[in-house]
Amino acid sequence: MAETPIRFGILGCAEIARKVSRAISLAPNAALYAVGSRSLEKATKFAASNGFPESAKIYGSYDAVLDDPNVDAVYIPLPTSLHLKWATLAAEKKKHILLEKPVALNVGEFDKIIEACESNGVQLMDSTMWMHNPRTAEMKKFISDPEKFGELRSVNAIFTFAADSDFLENDIRVKPDLDALGALGDAGWYCVRSILWANDFQLPKFVKALPGTLFNKAGVIMSCGASLHWEDGKVATFHCSFFSNLTMNVTVTGTKGTLHLNDYVIPFEEKQGSFMTATESGFTEFVTGWVPLPSQHTVMTGLPQEARMVSEFSRLVNSIKKDGSVGEKKWPSYSRKTQFVLDAVKTSIDKDGESVSLS
């Protein structure tokens, strides 16, 4: 029997909400039900241009969405500085929450969101879309294989894009009162998540910001990097920036194998994703080439990764609604660990690159 579609309300009309609205429409167990903005006119225009059904509810406030008894879940793409307020209110209204990243300005704020969700029995998940791509599961199989990959030794992650002048002046991600973490909270979130994913979400012992952090005139991070260190000698590095050409690379290196990925946040193509693996690599006799050559693997996506995210979230919500299940704690745990590492990197940046312990 098909699942009853989870009715989504969207708080705000951010640009990313266009993509997630489409994902909700594509997910087989979800439905666009309502959208709210501080302006009724803006909400009406957003719904009309983003495929909302004629029956959708249009509200001129966020509170009205939360007060609608037919809204099962809300997607919150508001500026990070507003997450604590609106996610907490949503949880108190018994709305399940799909929350944009970064999930909060710091882990202390996010702990309050988690507490509100757990005490009100609602599911919480952040919107790190690539985690739900079937390619991600296939890559995990490779780096978990002791024969092909061996033991993890290092991870390097990069996410950069060259923002235009309008973005650098006006986007919420460059405003200290809206998204104070800047490039670290936006692009850096994905880098840290990929590193933790490769490490089975084992937290590092300490982190250390790399030299060269760049700020805008308001003091918001525009470009930065860090190294992460584990007790057993594993190390990871990442770089994120609003100033460099679009790059989304992850390299995961083990004692026997290597994983290479060039489009981990958003695949080059929506319907498929590829990655490369190499095992026991060496050189030809005269050191003129590699042997064996790395192999490329392509995974068909089916539903786009963002629709898969919505579908998985909706499945968990349905389980709670129908079976009285407890919310899946894996996803909030992943979010918290990612935020915890971001906090430590930010502290290291503020302390001119001092090592910051996570123990």
UniProtKB/TrEMBL annotation:
Domain GFO/IDH/MocA-like oxidoreductase: 146-259
A single MF term (Gene Ontology): nucleotide binding
Pfam family, one: GFO_IDH_MocA
Domain Gfo/Idh/MocA-like oxidoreductase N-terminal: 6-125
Family membership: Belongs to the Gfo/Idh/MocA family.
Protein name: NAD(P)-binding domain-containing protein
Biological source species: Cynara cardunculus var. scolymus
